[in-house]
Specification:
By secondary structure, the protein is of the alpha+beta class. The protein has 5 helices and 10 strands; from the N terminus they run ααββββββββββααα. The protein has a domain at 39-149: Rieske [2Fe-2S] iron-sulphur domain (Rieske Iron-sulfur Protein, 3-layer Sandwich), CATH 2.102.10. The protein starts with 16 loop residues before the first helix and ends in a 6-residue tail after the last helix. The model has no long low-confidence stretch (mean pLDDT 92). InterPro entries: Rieske_2Fe-2S (IPR017941), Rieske_2Fe-2S_sf (IPR036922), Ring_hydroxy_dOase_asu_C_dom (IPR015879), Rng_hydr_dOase-A (IPR001663). Residues 37-146 form the Rieske domain. Keywords: 2Fe-2S, Iron, Iron-sulfur, Metal-binding, Oxidoreductase.
Length: 209
Amino acid sequence: MTITNLPPSLIPTLPGEYYTAPEVFAQEQERVFEAMWFCAARASELARPGAFRTCQVGRESVLISRSRDGSVKAFLNICRHRGAKLCTEESGEVKRAFQCPYHAWTYGLDGKLVAAPNLTSMPDIDRTEYGLINVHVREWLGYVWVCLAENPPSFEADVIGDVVSRLGDVESIERYGIENLSVGRRIVYDVRANWKLIIENFMECYHCA
């Protein structure tokens, strides 16, 4: 049953199937999580070259790391050889490269293929063609944002513009020094519920402090 004609103060929830239907969830993965900018990590967690984090974005595992030139890089967390997961840990640090645990294909911090067993005996393999698959990435306000879309929406419009519309101009926001904050504690909840229920619960004004 769908209730209509509610007063403005009572924003209705969606019909039940939007929280349970697999086909709706699949569309959300494609059209929301895999198409929009996703806040994936704190930049302070990638303080040194070789530091990395992995995160799930839609249906893909994404590897985020700090390169030797100080920039943040993001890749699909899969080896280009047989598609094995490259990094199985949530976070960590490597010295020079990422090595696949399956067949030891090895990639530099910039994602380039640098070594593989018997690679010299495979002259038809062009190293430049078999680097890790890049994911669009931006660093702003001490956060790392990624987007899986081949042609991502404008970061300036969709992220910076949205923040500005709520909190004021960019210069005023940046004066807060949010990038200097540190993570004091991380609490992770594994909730058996559709993601929209979590968001709606968070946005419910009765729950505001």
